Give the backbone structure.
Amino acid sequence: MGETDVDVDVVVIGGGACGMVAALRAADGGLTVALFEKSTQHGCNSQVSSGSLAAAGTRWQRAAGVDDSPQRQADDIVRESGDESTRPLVEAVCSVAPGILDWLNDELGHTLELGGDMRRHGMSVPRLHTDPARSGGIALVRTLRTAIAASESIAFVDSTPGIGLLSEDGVVVGAVVLQNGAPVEVRARAVVLASDGFAANAELVAAYVPEAVDDVFQGVSTSTGDALAWAMGSVRRRAT
């Protein structure tokens, strides 16, 4: 793409915690970001979660005398999942997690502490971090949205779901969003899909996690797995 072909540096689809962190980190790097959210009214799964953040080898663990490392965390996750093929991705995520917690605490003012009593199945040591008031995901999302609103490099657009990707010669060059009932193409150097999971989509759950069909889903209704079809080839190409 040429310089005149780009609307923004980064398009982020999904304004939950993942999408907002991606947008903020990109803006910290001097990039312009367009962040599109399906519905803040319906919320995101992070908002209804405990708000606890898993990371290993953090300063909070060290202060509490907990011996841990990103490698140990990755080993725990892969052992629990039984899927060795995910190891490279798991190790990459675990390696950057402590730095993200430092950033949340020091740069965004989201005070954290080690939740020593917040154990989870499969964790060999305590590694969940939370705000001291145990306010849950609402506090985390509030912190991120405040930072988004204060950024001059991020345009947060609500009630505007992503509906597809733009590609040229097999390369993704942007995204298509539905704004005021009409499709709008947004071209960018990078596209981040942070559109939540698919647990609210019964058809996808039956296809990919059949053992969970009868489980009770306690997340938000917008977790419909929209981006899966795009990633699997249902790509909207730019009109010529």
Summary: The beta strands are 8-13, 33-36, 53-54, 113-114, 128-130, 154-157, 162-168, 171-179, 182-193. The CA atoms of residues 68 and 125 lie 7 Å apart. The domain at 3-45+150-231 is CATH 3.50.50.60 (FAD/NAD(P)-binding domain).
